[in-house]
Amino acid sequence: MNQTRPTAARDASDNERGRRGGEISSDGRSGKQPEQKQAGKRRYDEYKDGVEEIIHFKNEDSNTPTARSKDDPSHRTKRPKVSGEGERESRDAPQDPASAQANYVDLERELLQAPWSKKQTLRIKSPMIRLHNEIIEFYEYIRPSPAEEASRERAFARIRDLILEKIPDAEIHLFGSYATKLYLPKGDIDFVVVKQDLVDKTVMNRVAKVLFKNEELFEGIQLIRGAKVPIIKFVDKETQVQFDISFNKMDGVHHLVEVDRAMAAYPEMKYVIMVIKLLLRQRDLHETFKGGIGSFLLFCMTLHFLREVRKDYFIQGRQDQLKYVTLGEYVIRFMEYYGIQFDINNKSIILTGGGDVVDKPRGTRDSSFSLISPQDTHHDIGSSSFRIKDVFSLFKNRFNFIVNYNFRPGESILKYIVNPSLQSFIPY
Q: Which segment, 57-61, 257-261, 368-372, is predicted with the most confidence on average?
């Protein structure tokens, strides 16, 4: 992608910019007019179905949210107010026609930077409703087409058949973002080869031989033995689909059931994940073995965050207002929660038992991220993300920019999150 300056510098300098126009406040309000609220309500119905249960990972039979005590300071997290708690008048002063015209963006040029957006969406005056609609349109734009699905299926079948030819009694299971259909256009395919009567290293070596003997089909073959979970990475030449293969580890496969349950309980989850996933990928912060946030960790972070939002609403007796929270608010508050509010040095996230934020054990309080696996309470899946400070700084930067920038009429808001170059959009 052509870039006018490095992304990190651009993200930082964005915070210094500002123009007259619509502004998103930290509480998510933006001076919505009645007709805009009604338009937004129609769009809510496209993804909201009124599900209000808090899902639990293990040993739980209750659908009632586990509410925290308001008087428990160690578990209290400050969060922004939610849109809909009162409207404010627009602060834009009247403009003469010439200056008003200059304040609008060129929609055709804007659609190059934000091709997911529809013109009628960009014309919405309320920045929050505009962002909400953009996120829905972005999800539809970025999700795989039937042709892309078919191409990936062919690529997977090719390597699966070759492995089974060499190791006929092995089991092969898909997992990760490809299995959950939450992958970006150039996202990889994760699968595991299971041969329980062989040690992991032996299975890895046998699969490696298959790849190297078929170099006319595969390229970029890398054996990453030093990772916490050793993997082989390679690219299918015909489709350019990337693969990650692990060995004898079924954790990712077991997670699929919980992901499906969470997606049913939280209809907003898939939208938040896809936006944040692209934000991370563009900064090369999306792979666990590079210290970033992998797909399952991002899922767990999103699940925890959405639980916290719902818990607050139930504590305050305002659960009936959850259906009015916009997708833009969820994304903005996600970045605020992890970029500003979460105490990474002293707190740990657990997902079992309805989820909670607890103190790290004494002697382990440091700047590493702690999120305990929902399947294994002895496994901290957050600790391997050694670039977590870069991730959280990115969230903080984008949050501060979005809530302080004055957006012009007709301007995409989402592009400042998922198109950092502000050039013609490339979906990575």
A: 368-372
Among residues 152, 150, 426, the alpha carbon closest in space to that of 282 is found at 426
- pLDDT confidence bin for 311, thresholds 50/70/90: very high
In sequence order, the β-bridge partners of residue 358 are: 348
Query: Is residue 417 packed enough to be buried (19+ CB in 10 Å), middle (13-18) or exposed (0-12)?
Result: buried
Write the DSSP string, 22-33.
EE--TTS-----
Contacts of residue 211, Cβ cutoff 8 Å, sequence gap at least 6: 159, 218, 221, 232, 234
Phi, psi of 406 (to 5 degrees): -90, 105
Residue 427 has φ and ψ, to the nearest 5°, of -80, 10
Record the pTM.
0.75
Q: Supply the pLDDT for residue 410.
A: 92
Residue of higher predicted confidence among 186 and 151: 151
List the one residue out of 402, 49, 383, 98 whose CA is nearest residue 228: 383
Rounded Cα–Cα distance for residues 369 and 387 (Å): 9
What residue type is 405 in one-letter code? Y
Name every residue whose Cβ is closer than 8 Å to that of residue 388 and which is 6 or more positions away in sequence. Answer: 291, 293, 344, 367, 368, 369, 382
Q: Are 50 and 107 spatial neighbours (Cβ–Cβ below 8 Å)?
A: no
d(C-alpha 428, C-alpha 425), whole Å:
9
The H or E element that residue 406 is part of is strand 406-407
Structure tokens at 411: 């301007």
CB 127 within 8 A of CB 413: yes
Torsion angle of the four alpha carbons 66, 251, 190, 214, in this order, in degrees rounded to the nearest 10:
180
Question: Which helix (H) or strand (E) element contains residue 232?
Answer: strand 231-236
Token reading at 323: 């259906």
Q: If you count DSSP H runs as helices and E runs as strands, how many of each does the chain have, helices first?
A: 15, 9
Q: Are 299 and 292 in contact (CB under 8 A)?
A: no
Whole-number Å distance between alpha carbons of 135 and 246: 33
- 120-153 confidence digits (pLDDT tens): 999 999 999 999 999 999 999 999 889 999 999 9
Residues 394 and 340: beta-carbon distance below 8 Å:
no
The β-bridge partners of 224 are 231
Residue 160: count of CB within 10 angstroms of its CB: 15
